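Service request form, structural biology core

Requester: graduate student, group of Dr. S.
Request type: structure prediction, single chain
Budget code: on file
Notes: please return the result as C-alpha cells.

Sequence provided:
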Amino acid sequence: MKTKTTLLAALALCGCIANTVVTADASVPGGAGSNNLDQALRKLIKQNGLSGLPAANRTVPDIHSPKAQLGMRLFFNKALGGDKDAACASCHHPLLGGGDDLSQAIGVQAVNPDLLGPGRTRTDGQVLVPRNSPSTFNTALWDSFMFWDGRVESLGKIPGANGAGSPIRTPSTPLNVADPNAGDNLVSAQAKFPVTSVAEMRGNFATGSENTYVWMHLGGRLGNFAEGAGELPHPEYWVKQFRQVYGTPTSKPQDVITQHNLFDAIGAYERSQLFVDTPWSHYVRGDQSAINEKAKRGALLFYRPYNQGGGNCVACHSGDKFTDENFHNLGVPQIGIGGRGGADNSNDYGRGHETGKLADRFAFRTPSLLNVQGTAPYTHSGAYLNLKDVIRHHSNPFAAVYFYDDSKIKRRNPGISTGKMRNNTLEALVRLYGDMLGNRTPLRITNLSEENVDDLAAFLRTLTDPCIKSADCLAPWIPPLGEDPNGLQLDAQFRVSADQ
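Core staff response, request fulfilled:
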C-alpha cells in the first residue's frame, strides 16, 4: 500500500511521467477571432463526419402514442416495486435529467418514497445501490450496450437499430449468449432488470425466487391473475390500458399483461425521451451564432488530438451521439459499496466483472455527453457533482484522486460509505498508469489550465437540449397527479440542494 500511495503522490504532484503528459492549447493560428475559430471548427466537424442530427434515420416512439403512454404510467407506478415502495421513476425522473440527482441511488425502503433527489434516504440510513443512475434520456440512441458494465448487449450492434433485429444478451444468459426473452430492443431488455434488484425495486419481495417468478408475479399483480391476484384493489385500471395497446376489449388479462408487453411498453416510454435539439447541433448544421466564442474554444480543445494541442476528448466521446459505446478505465474514485469485484466484493470491476478479463477491470461504458449539463452527478460512481471537476479528472486522474474531497457527496448521500475508496481507486489508477505507458488507453495527463477547463465546460453546456431544463416542456413525459386509483403512482416531491 505504501508503494501504491507513493506512486499516486508522484503522479499527482510531479506531472512529468514520460509518455503520459501532453500540453493542451486551444489557440488558433492567425488569431482567435470568431472567423478563425469557425474556420478551424468547420474543418474538425468535417473530419469527424458530424451531421448535427444524432437521431437521423431512427424510429423513435411518440410520447403521445398509446404504447408510450402506457409505459409512462408503468414507469411512474410503485406497483412494480416488489414491496410497492419504489417505481422506475424513483431513480429516473425527467425533472432530474432522467436520473435522480444523487451520486448513488436510494431505491427501496425510502423514508419518504415520493421524495426524490437530495434528501431521499433509506430507513436504515444505508446506500446499497453501488452505481450512479444513468439518464434515461436518449436511450433510443444506444446501439451496443446498456448499463455501465454493458451487461445488456446487442450481439449484432447494428448502427441505428437500438438493438432491434439483433440477438440481445442480458444477465439471464452467459456472456455472448443471446437471451430469447430479451425483448425487441436494448431499452426494453434493460427495463426488465431494475424490478429484480433487491436494492433498486424488489426489496424483500419473493426472496430467493428467480427473476422469471418476479416478472410473472408483477404481471399477475397488475392484471389480478395467478399468484399476483388480489394484490391491487383496482386491477381493472391496468387491464383496460393493456387491452387498448396489446389486445381487444375482451382480451383476457393474462393474454395482454405479459412479460414481453410489460417491458415493451416501458421501453417505448424511455425511448420516446429523445432530447437532441442542442445549440451545438444547430452550430454543426450551419448557425455560426448558436454558440459563443468561449464554447468554440472549448470545442477546439475537445476535438483536437493531443499532438495538436487539444484535449483529445473525441477519442471516446465521438460522433453526433458523443460516445464510442465502448469501455474505458478513467481511475474514477470508487465510492460506495462496490459489489462487483475484489476479494471482499467491495470493489467495482465494471466491464471486467462481465468479461472476466484483467484488461477490462475498472472500465465503464462511455456515457453520451448529450444533455450533460442536466445529468449530474457524473461518472459510474457519481463521484463528481459538476462538469469542471470531471474535466479536471480527465486532465489528471492521479491528481484528482489525490486531492479528492468526498464531503459534498456525503452531504447529498449521507449513507455512502467511502472507507475503502482509497484502496480500490488506487488499484484502478495503477492499472490506468500501466495502460498509459503501454498505449492501451487514449487518456493522457494534460494538466489543463483553468481557462481550458472553463472553455471545455462552456462547450459541454452547448450539448444540452433546452427542453430538459423546462418543466413545461417535459410535462408530456410526466403523468397527471393522482391518476392511479390504487394510490401507487409516484407523484414526486423535491428539495433544493446547495451542493452543485
